[in-house]
Here is the input.
Amino acid sequence: MQVQLKVNGKASTLDLAPNTLLVQALREHLQLTGTHVGCDTAQCGACTVLLNGRAVKSCNMLAAQANGAEITTIEGLAAADGTLHPMQAAFKECHGLQCGFCTPGMVLSAIDLCKQHPKATEAEIRELLEGNLCRCTGYHNIVRAVQQGAAAMAA
Amino acid sequence: MGASDFANLPHIGESVRRKEDYRFLTGGGQYTDDVNLAHQRYAVFVRSPHAHAVIKSVDVTKAEAMPGVAKVFTGKDVEGKMGGLPCGWLIHSIDGSPMKEPPHPVLAQGKVRYVGDHVAVVVADTIEQAKNAAEAVEVDYDVLPAAVDVRDAPKGTALHDAAPDNCCYRWALGDKAQTDAAFAKAAHVTKLDLINNRLIPNAIEPRAAIGSYNRATDEYTLYVANQNPHVERLLMTAFVLSLPEHKVRVIAPDVGGGFGSKIYLYAEDVAVTWAAKQLNCSIKWTAERNESFVSDAHGRDHVSHAEMAMDKDGKFLALRVHTDANLGAYLSTFGSSVPTYLYGTLLAGQYATPQIYVEVDAWFTNTAPVDAYRGAGRPEASYLIERLVTRCGWELGLSQDEIRRRNFITSFPYQTPVALQYDTGDFPACLDQANKLADVAGFDARRKASEAKGLKRGIGYSSYIEACGLAPSNIAGALGARAGLFECGEVRVHPTGSVTVFTGSHSHGQGHETSFAQLVAARLGISVDAVEVVHGDTGRIPFGMGTYGSRSLSVGGSAIMKALDKIEAKAKKIAAHLMEASDADIEFTNGEFKVKGTDKKIPFGQVALTAYVPHNYPLDKLEPGLDETAFYDPTNFTYPGGTHICEVEIDPATGRTRVDRFAAVDDFGTIVNPMIVEGQVHGGLTQGIGQALLENCVYDRETGQLLTGSFMDYAMPHADDLPDFKLGHVCTPCTHNPIGSKGCGEAGAIGSPPAVINAVLDALRPLGVKDFDMPASPARVWDAIQSAKP
Here is the structure.
């Protein structure tokens, strides 16, 4: 079946098997390998992308369900000249990543989190990060990065 | 260059932001599953659904006839064509006999021994085709009784012919007679039974491997999510596939976390490499999370009984320990060394206990193999001692602080009764700082405030020590290690003065591209950006032992320092020639070569250029080029240590335990990049607190089915499970490496579990709860409170 996606500002028409997951469409058909797969059960959030601006787990929906949608993956966040998005920059500055595997999903979740809850407290950020697992950082610096990124996005 | 000179160099101790972050933050990282090769097919493993069964037959006829299927390989296909997976450490039992070392076949031979054991591998054009065909492989099993709990192993059905009683070895360390004599004279003996719960490492990147074969050159390439590519190649070529190493290149690209679980040579890695030649193609396998749960090496799983003999003042006289260690169904790469050399040798802890005797019985069970997981043996030792010491204090009416202070080792070097010699440390200083950081003085007021809300509050101490940078090779060899424990570093100075460093260490989140670059930049007086660090590829790096046991900076960094010594010595000769001075008169500081006592100087870059454009060069005495390699074999372990203090608040109505405060003061020796070190501590603490409160690998005791087989059943720590950590540092530099560093990667996971459980017990003691095993999940805590009621 044909699925139309606008990914990182670029429109594509993909010819996919009906059971193709959105994450497969991104990784295998569009070679956007920044979106990662870390679990089978939609717990880890490594596959998080923005779908029409909202964070979704791309391993947990069919590509067909995203037909016509605008998708932002981690590859589409930085400016055209390579300048990092304020949330990406905050993760770097706060050492909010180690192995980097959960990072794309974490950054995209954080962006949605800040848009929905621009004044979230530390405790609320911890609660709102419930859908993303990180095994390296202990979340400590991720929470700081989200706070700093939120401030930079609001500025 | 000595450790004190090194620590004073510019940029050492600066939190330089990580060079590797840009690619990780923009989707530019390349993990194994991101790699795709030409002529690539996909592998899916047929795994045992039973914990213990005889394979009566495997029928692949239907599967091989399915669309896209190239081949289904079974145990029969590999029998006699390859060796089994080797174990890297030979342990001898107390009677002198070698450990039982049953074969660990790449694909099961006649029997399966745990849920997830490898029965067959299907190779097909697409992953869907391979999965569908795997479903069609017909295996006829004759199910046998399973033993999964280590306490059931002695009377269980034998897993291996080579070990009829399921015992792998009965090991001991220390002087039994002297220890027993000390117990006979003791004024008080404190006893404790405890379980160190089995854990599943769960790096967020699942394991993956792509085997590739080129018939034209008879060469193999293996991309694999692995922590030590040279060791992977060595074990696979020398022990399993009998291939010359120069025909096999192992590349471990960006790796999404390891925590020990990616040290080992796994069946999947061998299978895709071997099958690639059989089918003359590339074969990719990526674990799904459910496969990771059943087939990654697990961690911990000890059942112990400990006793401490004391005099009337609470001074330790002797420690006696018996541990039953669960090795799982097969010996994993370092599985045998974890409960012995990485556990028994650490049982002195931070205390001057004159006599220690430890016995470890290691057992085969119908569970996934157990091997080193973050801390590897030291968390088990630290948990046992620190729980026991706190109990000693409580039984004698001494505070957790006081019982520790009375027994701390205060003079170094200190030879423990269990083989190790600690070089440096300042245990009271760590304890003092931790008391301040944790605001122990304010604890009583906080407890009263909790009680006013109907909640219980407790405080727990843990003063741990660990041994990092496993060493030295000759001693380790005498103790049964089958590999060297050195590291290799190559420093290649380019003509224009930038530098590429090739390290045998491997970074899978630890930030080596930054901290190693800092080290080299500081030594050469150049910018961090002028240094590139290459790791993870046997095709580019001379040799390496990889990253585990917090060895990267202390061992890997020291190898680079040795190569830099050679670079500096050669560069001084070139500089002497250029400035027409004697070699002995040249000094090198801040990136400049100077002639002592004169104002003559030239920068490092000019010397580098001269080495590669040798028009004015002492060609009669020196070779052109500035490229040196060094191997460093440490003379001792390093001994990071510290004190962690945890405060928990428990709701007795629900059993919910919340870590309210956590203070950790660690001594890692010299710190190159504090930001990276603190990040390592945060991660370690979270894994340790995870073990104490949440994580538990549970097999059904009857059937051997893994009950915690997904993130829905295995409780991983989330952001809201953790408090804001307070970290402090004490620095007593390591005396025997040129950096003075001790290692920091595992400290958090080692120090924190006993601090948490001591805090839980402190909170629950007034309710009559005397003992508690991890994890302190709400149900278990609630249950403990209910059972303690009269």
